[in-house]
Amino acid sequence: MEAGDDDTASERNCILYAISVTYVLCFIFSCVFKNSQIQANLQKVLKRITHCSKLCGLPLRFRFRFLNIERSYWKLKSDECETAIEELKKQNDSVAAALAKLDRQVKLKEGQIVQLRSRQREIHEKCELEQLKLPTVNDPMDTGSSSQELVLDYSQLSEIYLKEVQLSDRDKLEAEFKQKIGILMAEIERTAPNLKALDQYEALQTKEKEVSEKFEAARKEEREVADKYNSVKQRRYELFMEAFDHISKGIDKIYKQLTKSHTHPLGGTAYLNLENEDEPFLHGIKYTAMPPTKRFRDMEQLSGGEKTVAALALLFAIHSFRPSPFFILDEVDAALDNLNVAKVAGFIRSKSCERAGEEQDGDGGCGFQSIVISLKDSFYDKAEALVGVYRDSERSCSRTLTFDLTKYKEA
């Protein structure tokens, strides 16, 4: 039994050794051969060998060897993948650099195209100024096409000019063109003179003289008109400033008379300001009125009665500069209280009674007559005469009544 067991063990070891050798050879072949079909077949053989080794009870050390071999295999595969990735990265960087270079070249060419188009437009404009006709593909009668849309007809050039000209040939072409220009200039000099040119020149010279005389006459007329305009403008400014200075000086006195009382003997304050003193007609005039005991505020913030008193002060100040024969006031006391009504009525009476037609007085105004329409007795009882208007119902018409108050003494 012992001899038989030894033989069996030896045979088993031989089989395991053969399996190990076969496994190693398959692994080596799978690493060497790059063909996908061969590698797939070798992988199948390796799987079968692994399965057989498990059935035969392969020792643990051989299994570890197999695992180490497999690990080496996959490590080698990983290295190959990393190498391939690095190679692809290099190729990608190379392609990106090539694309960047091409992009720079494209931008450079685009800039050159823009410069050439600009040069083409300059040449075309110069040819138009010199009345040189260029061969174009466009319809010559099409006057609506711009110089940018002009398409030149290069087919009329000789073949030598249609070919790409090298830098070394430019000097030759330039010399050739200069020679042709010289020949053409010589032909022009040899051309017979135009006998009518002198007559045409004299006619044009006479016409130029007439136009120059008309131009000088128009320039002289323009200077005269400009001087008249400046004179009128200066006169307008002087008249305006004369009126403004007079009104601005008198408005404060008149406003004080309309607003002063026993409790406020000084009255309020009013003044005018120009928004633009150099050019007063380009801007407005600021009117400020401050009633007694009140601070400065805009005219819009005053009450209705305060605005009425301020407006009457401005009206009387304007009237004092160019007095009219009389005033017609229509219910100017509508927004006034009894105190202000009495003040306005007293001021109008002080300027009206026995002063019509007088010169400037000492209170900032001149005498005038006034016709006032009012519904308040505290206003019209200061008048010299009353005129009442009423409706006659029987005759369907209006009637008037007059009443002379000068015949009665004041209470």
UniProtKB/TrEMBL annotation:
<keyword id="KW-0539">Nucleus</keyword>
<dbReference type="InterPro" id="IPR027417">
    <property type="entry name" value="P-loop_NTPase"/>
</dbReference>
<dbReference type="Pfam" id="PF02463">
    <property type="entry name" value="SMC_N"/>
</dbReference>
<keyword id="KW-0498">Mitosis</keyword>
<dbReference type="GO" id="GO:0007062">
    <property type="term" value="P:sister chromatid cohesion"/>
</dbReference>
<keyword id="KW-0131">Cell cycle</keyword>
<dbReference type="GO" id="GO:0016887">
    <property type="term" value="F:ATP hydrolysis activity"/>
</dbReference>
<keyword id="KW-0158">Chromosome</keyword>
<keyword id="KW-0472">Membrane</keyword>
<protein>
    <recommendedName>
        <fullName>RecF/RecN/SMC N-terminal domain-containing protein</fullName>
    </recommendedName>
</protein>
<dbReference type="GO" id="GO:0008278">
    <property type="term" value="C:cohesin complex"/>
</dbReference>
<keyword id="KW-0132">Cell division</keyword>
<dbReference type="InterPro" id="IPR003395">
    <property type="entry name" value="RecF/RecN/SMC_N"/>
</dbReference>
<feature type="transmembrane region" description="Helical">
    <location>
        <begin position="15"/>
        <end position="33"/>
    </location>
</feature>
<keyword id="KW-0175">Coiled coil</keyword>
<dbReference type="GO" id="GO:0005634">
    <property type="term" value="C:nucleus"/>
</dbReference>
<keyword id="KW-1133">Transmembrane helix</keyword>
<dbReference type="GO" id="GO:0005524">
    <property type="term" value="F:ATP binding"/>
</dbReference>
<dbReference type="GO" id="GO:0003677">
    <property type="term" value="F:DNA binding"/>
</dbReference>
<feature type="coiled-coil region">
    <location>
        <begin position="85"/>
        <end position="119"/>
    </location>
</feature>
<keyword id="KW-0812">Transmembrane</keyword>
<feature type="domain" description="RecF/RecN/SMC N-terminal">
    <location>
        <begin position="174"/>
        <end position="392"/>
    </location>
</feature>
<dbReference type="InterPro" id="IPR028468">
    <property type="entry name" value="Smc1_ABC"/>
</dbReference>
<dbReference type="GO" id="GO:0051301">
    <property type="term" value="P:cell division"/>
</dbReference>
